[in-house]
């Protein structure tokens, strides 16, 4: 699987809060975002079925 890059715009306060949560969980901000995305996809697929590629 190829690793892709994605840029996002995020306000300073939200970024700071993301870093606090990530630090608490022992993750980098990038890793924390990946966890949140994975959780959102899993929740979607539980409700709507598997997303086909």
Any descriptors?
53 residues, mainly alpha, 2 helices
How do the strands and helices of this protein lay out in sequence?
Layout: H1 12-25, H2 29-48
Helix pairs in contact: 1-2
Count the beta strands.
0
Quote the average pLDDT.
97
What best-fitting shape do the alpha-carbon axes yield?
extended
Global structural class: mainly alpha
**In terms of quaternary structure, what is this?**
single chain
Helix and strand element order: HH
Q: Tell me the number of helical segments per DSSP (H or I, 4 or more residues long).
A: 2
User: If you compute it from the alpha carbons, what radius of gyration comes out, rounded to the nearest whole angstrom?
Assistant: 13 Å
Quote the beta fraction: under 5%
How would you characterize this protein structure?
The protein has two helices and no strands. It is an all-alpha fold and 53 residues long. The longest helix is centred in the C-terminal third of the chain and has 20 residues, at 29-48. The two termini are 13 Å apart. The model has no long low-confidence stretch (mean pLDDT 97).
Please provide a brief summary of the model.
The protein is built from 2 helices and no strands. The chain has 53 residues and is an all-alpha fold.
């Amino acid at each position: 699987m190829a690793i892709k890059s994605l840029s996002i715009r995020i306000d300073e306060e939200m970024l700071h809060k993301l870093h606090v949560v990530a630090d608490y969980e022992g993750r980098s901000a990038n890793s924390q975002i990946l966890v949140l995305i994975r959780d959102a996809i899993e929740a979607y697929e539980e409700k709507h079925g598997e997303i086909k590629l």
